[in-house]
Amino acid sequence: MGNDRSPKKKKGGTKDMDDLKKEVPITEHKMSVEEVCRKFQTDVVQGLTNAKAAEFLLRDGPNALTPPPTTPEWVKFCRQLFGGFSILLWTGAILCFLAYAIQAATEDEPAGDNLYLGIVLTAVVVITGCFSYFQEAKSSKIMESFKNMVPQQALVIREGEKVQINAEEVVAGDLIEVKGGDRIPADIRVTSAHGCKVDNSSLTGESEPQSRSPDCTHDNPLETRNIAFFSTNCVEGTARGIVICTGDRTVMGRIATLTSGLETGKTPIAVEIEHFIHIITGVAVFLGVTFFILAIILGYTWLEAVIFLIGIIVANVPEGLLATVTVCLTLTAKRMAKKNCLVKNLEAVETLGSTSTICSDKTGTLTQNRMTVAHMWFDNQIHEADTTEDQSGAAFDKSSVTWLSLSRVAALCNRAQFKAGQDSVAILKRDVAGDASESALLKCIELSCGSVRMMRDKNKKVAEIPFNSTNKYQLSIHETEDPNDNRYLLVMKGAPERILDRCSTIMLQGKEQPMDEEMKEAFQNAYMELGGLGERVLGFCHLLLPEDQYPKGFAFDTDDVNFQTDNLCFVGLMSMIDPPRAAVPDAVGKCRSAGIKVIMVTGDHPITAKAIAKGVGIISEGNETVEDIAARLNIPVSQVNPRDAKACVIHGSDLKDLSQDQMDDILRNHTEIVFARTSPQQKLIIVEGCQRLGAIVAVTGDGVNDSPALKKADIGVAMGISGSDVSKQAADMILLDDNFASIVTGVEEGRLIFDNLKKSIAYTLTSNIPEITPFLFFIIVNIPLPLGTITILCIDLGTDMVPAISLAYEAAESDIMKRQPRNPSRDKLVNERLISIAYGQIGMIQALGGFFAYFVILAENGFLPSQLVGIRLNWDDRSLNDLEDSYGQQWTYEQRKIVEFTCHTAFFVSIVVVQWADLIICKTRRNSVFQQGMRNKILIFGLFEETALAAFLSYCPGMDVALRMYPLKPTWWFCAFPYSFLIFVYDEARKLILRRNPGGEHTIDRWSTFAQAPHIFHLFLPPVIPSSAKHISRCPAPLKTKSALKQFSSQLPQRLKTAKAPLQLSTSTCPLSPHLL
Amino acid sequence: MASTEDKAANKENVSSWKDSIYNPRTGELLGRTASSWALILLFYLVFYCFLAGMFALTMWVMLLTLDDYVPRYRDRVPEPGLVIRPNSLDITFNKSDSKNYRTYVNHLESFLQRYNDSMQENNADCIPGEYYMQDGGEMTKKVCPFRRTSLSLCSGLSDTDFGYQEGKPCVLLKMNRIIGLKPIGDPYINCTVKKDHPVQMHYFPSEGRIDKMYFPYYGKKAHENYMQPLVAVKLLLTKEDYNKELAVECRVEGTNLRNNDERDKFLGRVTFRVKVVE
Predict the structure, then answer these.
(1) What percent of chain B has pLDDT over 70?
(2) What residues 171-190 of chain B have any CB closer than 8 A to a CB of chain A?
(3) In what order do the strands lie in the sheet containing B269-277?
């Protein structure tokens, strides 16, 4: 038996995923308690019988979340060992061993070269594999901080007895009791509650605690009062309820399963690297096979052909490059960690850089996740309170007598209080016991009027009516401050319209005035305005009870109200909001100028969401939604052309009715979008929609409800302080300071590393040509081998490494935050232009430099170039020991091999020399080195390091035996200098042409003839995309949203049918964007 | 407008892979028009021509600096190697089958053609036992004669089969030519057979001596007809040596020349195998 769901899950993965993506199927909230009891065969007083509980436990399995599947360590290790270029190198190594085996079997004294090379290749693969594995393991350790979120104990009632059991043993139908501070052990249908409030913020994103009661208040199970959810917290009060779902079937469990079941696509950089590996492998295999066949045709033996094949593979594969990439990414990850972006997955470092859309959660990410008083209305005037985190905002006029009264009401009619022992903490940071709005008031008053406790001590509370949903007010009666005044002070706060109803006068400039129609209208306007800002508004009023009716010692009865609660004096309104973080508007602006679309996705109300969106600039000033236009023109919403509105606010319930096409239209045609009241499933659909349009999506969020979207996103960014464990688990990156602004840093670093990786790869790939060409000439022209496999490895894994890594430290050439995000379908890490420059141009010059050194050495030792062609057969003949050179001298095999190895060394040194120039030209893509400067100290160190290493390999005693490298005469170092110089001059000239002709690639008609000349010189410039290419779909999202919504398509609202506005053109910069000029 | 765009995008998706090879609408081949390809090819043609020119220039400059007579560096060939003729390190033959050893005999015969007395009438008479120094003066150096007759039994004149028919084969040894080499002492060749009892050997010229008058060598251009001195060894094999593989090692002795290098097994010495089948 066990978990009866799992087999089904395995059978139809996608179908099951679609099931999960649908809304929560809970219906119990609409049933009466009796029906629920019947359904679960339980009793509302006695609870389950032990036998039934055991039976259910057996049927449903324990009440725990299935942990996300993990990949075994050895699989990860093998992936590193056999992924990437490793297969190619393994092939090389196996061929080496094979060649050696054949030699050993056929020859008496087999040369150890092949065995040696095979061992070296194996070592290279294993060492780089281990290196990558440990890098990965290091970064994935962060994941292990995921804690078990199932509560330890639960109080259940079985057979009428309260028992404390392990929460894992709770089954559906159990009667459960929870109290303030408990974690809810399962999804429960509340049967009775006393002042029970739960914090659903991690599930729904609402920042304030919700009260729970047995009544069904909403069709949506997530919004109804009578369901409490697994792993949310009970903040206060007590409740009793029947368990309706356990384990993975709970709402939270579904989200967790949905999250862990989501297949995340490859990171953009992984795609790029794979693409690049394909190119290189393709070239290697093509060249290898071609020359293998050619060698056979030319009459070489099989063995020789195989040895050629090995040489070509080794020369083609940039062995050190993947390690270089890993190191570069690690360096950036470290740099980002310093700036409070902790990267869990190394490859995610770059993803932020290519991000084109950010879907941000509101609560906690954009906002401070703390209700704060934002506005006040008194003296018929709206006053703005300071909502900034550091109290740097403007203060309002506090001198008015009305304000004193208002603050007194707010302080007295308030049950919240600071928790003890926080006197040294800043007021805004103190912990408060009490609900969110009351704490907001408490902090506001404490900030502006001093200690609330003293005020409360002076005005002793005599009686109190707490807030309830029928009255919609809260009231308390206090003694006055003045000991001679025996009157009582009645203070009341509550929903503004209810308060107004109870008032007959209003306080203006400290004087009571009758409440006339004019004032009522003023009140209405203020109320509407504050409400329109998305703020929660409370009304405040007071009354000094007449002494004659209520003398000192009057027994106030709060149950059966025996005192006046109307004809009060209205004092003012106060409105609260969870204000945006100070750094957010600036960060949003930066994202926008970087071409990144910021979408707000929140579980909160549309009005609040819109207000915050406007506050932080997600909806920029002057942009209107369809509704705004309708209101301004005073016409119905349906008559507004949706294309006129750049911004839009979409309600979750509308989203449910949208087809995929409509969704795409919205995402495509609006630049400023806010999704409100969205469920976790809808967040996922939004992310998928963006990805379907070819965007690379970053999602930020902190709650459990965000985690599916976090996982699905190309990069999920969780909050380090307020984030739930589930969200941190699902994310790729964690903002340690919860600050949205840190994302901008991430984008900048990501873009920089992409540029710099390009440079690194261009640098490393260039030396492939001087590595391959010796082999090709060796085979075709039959000259002695100019460069051996060991020396090739010395370049790839020795001298090229530090300079390539040093390019990761290059500073940006232009303002990378002013350009569009790269288009993943067109701006490749390695494209034909980079290959063309690296292989076709610079690489060729390098090869010539190497060959020149080779010919110089042979000629100066007696073998003139004219004699070399065709000499190979004799040269490599071991039994031929009197080979004659151009001067008539005769050479033994060993003597001429020493010359050959000296040539290898010289070729190697020449590559180092030409790589100096290559390194300097790779520093910049279009700026001259003289503009960019040589400020990269690591790069200068790299230049010296590679030179020192080359000298060491050449001159260290014993190298002739170990690596067969021989000391060079000093003059031989200079052979490649002219070529090194040529590379520098050539590339500076190329960049000059590029700077003079900024058109080229950037013209809209990119194939026009005029574009061609500079086109050739363009290697890795990010072309500014003709706007029409911007939305070429990258790949279909793997998980298509199931069109259960299709039935609605017949009722397509007209405005959406006409909404096929042109593709957005606005954000892309003009062809000659500033950063290119 | 939007819908046409949509359609276009759609179409693009459908035929994109075909278009990437040849796009009939724009005439693009592999994503470029013919003129674009032509420009690229032209660029590369010019570029590579320039590179070839540059390479040729540097090579020409380098070759200008070289001396025609003597290579710039001779430190990679400080010592001569020792090689044998016939040019095989595995001399196996059936002494009674003339076809079997014919290749060896022919090889020796053709090798010795240069040493025919008739070829050496122009050569100067040198003083034996002394270096024939010709520094200064003319660039073309005189040559000391080495006459084939001095090889006596192994000259191929009296015994045209070089002893192969009788199972007592001749092997010629020569020291590699090295410009300016002047061996100190009196060089001679000594061969040994790794075997329980020694095999008799006969050296020509006597004692396997290489006369110092053949040194130094002045290089191919100056010393065009230089006669490289030879030493012949006749292995006087007996019946019990037949059908066995004999490892023969010959060394240059009596000089400062190296003959025991660890790495180079042919420096001043040579090891070869002889097997005579009856």
Answers:
(1) 93
(2) 174, 176-179
(3) B90-94, B269-277, B245-255, B185-193
Peptide bond into A466 cis (omega under 30): no
Poorest-pLDDT segment among A107-121, A824-838, B59-73 = A107-121
Distance from CA of B72 to the nearest CA of A (A): 5
Contact B66 A864 (CB under 8 A): yes
Most confident range, picked from A234-238, A424-428, A775-779, B135-139:
A775-779
From the list B5, B58, B219, the residue facing A888 with the nearest CB is: B219
What does the pLDDT look like over A104-124, one tens digit per residue?
888 777 777 788 888 988 998
Smallest CA–CA distance, residue A862 to chain B, in Å, is 5
User: Mean pLDDT over residues B46-75, rounded?
Assistant: 94
Q: Catalytic: A390?
A: no
Across the range A549-573, mean pLDDT stands at 85
pLDDT interval class at B269 (50, 70, 90): very high
How many residues does the structure list for chain B? 278
Catalytic residue among A187, A361, A827, A918: A361
Res. A73 pLDDT band, cuts 50 70 90? confident
- pLDDT at position B197: 76
Q: Give pLDDT, residue A711.
A: 85
Q: How far is B81 from chain A (nearest CA, A)?
A: 6
pLDDT score of A2 = 37
Cα A42 from Cα A35, distance rounded (Å): 10
CATH of region A341-366+582-738: 3.40.50.1000
Going by DSSP bridges, is the β-strand pair A372-378/A381-384 parallel, antiparallel, or unpaired? antiparallel
Using CA coordinates, name the residue in chain B closest to A665: B2
Q: How far is B37 from chain A (nearest CA, A)?
A: 9
Start-to-end CA distance of chain A, whole Å, equals 70
Please give the CATH topology (third level) of the domain spanning A748-995: Calcium-transporting ATPase, transmembrane domain (1.20.1110)
Architecture in CATH for domain A29-265:
Distorted Sandwich (2.70)
Give B44 or A731, the one with higher predicted confidence: B44
Residues A157 and A177 sit within 8 Å (Cβ to Cβ): yes
pLDDT > 80? residue A613:
yes
Measured between beta carbons, which residues in chain B are less than 8 angstroms from residue A977?
Answer: none
Cα gap A374→A530, rounded to integer Å? 9
Residue A561 or residue A1041, greater confidence: A561
Contacts of A1013 in chain B (CB under 8 A): 39
Backbone angle region of A265, left / alpha / beta, with phi > 0 → left and psi within -120 to 50 → alpha:
beta
| Token reading at A240 | 């009793």
For residue A796, CA distances in Å to A287, A305, A946, B85 come to 19, 23, 11, 45
Q: In angstroms, what CA-CA distances link A1022 with A713, A806, A830? A: 24, 22, 12
For an interface test with A, give the residue of B10, B25, B68, B73 to mutate (most A CBs within 10 A): B73
Q: Do A889 and B219 touch (CB under 8 A)?
A: yes
Q: Between chains, do B71 and A1028 touch, taking CB under 8 Å as contact? A: no
Kindly report, residue by residue over A522-535, the tens digit of the pLDDT.
999 999 888 888 88
Q: Which CATH superfamily is domain A372-577 in?
A: Calcium-transporting ATPase, cytoplasmic domain N (3.40.1110.10)
State which fold the B82-277 domain adopts. Answer: Immunoglobulin-like (2.60.40)
Q: Where are the domains of chain B?
A: 4-64, 82-277
Interface predicted TM-score (ipTM) of this complex, two decimals: 0.91
How large is the average pLDDT for residues B135-142? 81
DSSP letter, residue A1075: G
Q: Does B234 touch chain A (CB under 8 A)?
A: no
- Asked if A363 contacts A578 with a C-beta cutoff of 8 angstroms, the reply is yes
Structure tokens at A471: 């009255």
